[in-house]
Amino acid sequence: MKRQFLGLLARVYVLQFAMEVPATVAMLAEMLMEYGFQVDIGTVRPLLRALQMEGYLQSVLRDGIGRVYLLTEQGREELRASRERIDDLYRRLHAPDAETTAPNQA
User: Which of 33, 46, 56, 99 lies at a CB distance of 3.0 to 4.6 Å from 75, suitable for a disulfide?
Assistant: First the structure.
């Protein structure tokens, strides 16, 4: 379960990073490592491939840089929806506990 959650979270991070700047595989791996993910280029490539197949990322060759990944419009929509779900979860996790704040109705 933890691995699945981290995989979903890594997807959101990659979409966010790709929106901010066209990034190479190495740059994306480094950004994920900065946020505590234990990844390398070999583990990031399949994630990027999956995001491309889903239509969320596109890759282009840039002179002097190599292949970079860019967020597509469909990727922007997915990122927006993911942010909404994360925000909703955050609100639920930080909402006062209904049992301790509701009046006692015995």
Answer: 56
Q: Are 20 and 38 in contact (CB under 8 A)?
A: no
- 106 assigned to some structural domain: no
User: Model-level pTM?
Assistant: 0.78
- Domain membership flag for residue 97: no
DSSP 8-state class, residue 23: B
Reported in sequence order, the residue ranges of 22-94 that DSSP labels E, i.e. its strands, are 57-62, 66-71
In a domain, 95, yes or no: no
Calculate mean pLDDT across residues 13-37: 93
pLDDT at res. 101: 47
CATH code of the domain in which 28 resides: 1.10.10.10
**Structure confidence at residue 95 (pLDDT):** 86
Number of structural domains (the chain) is 1
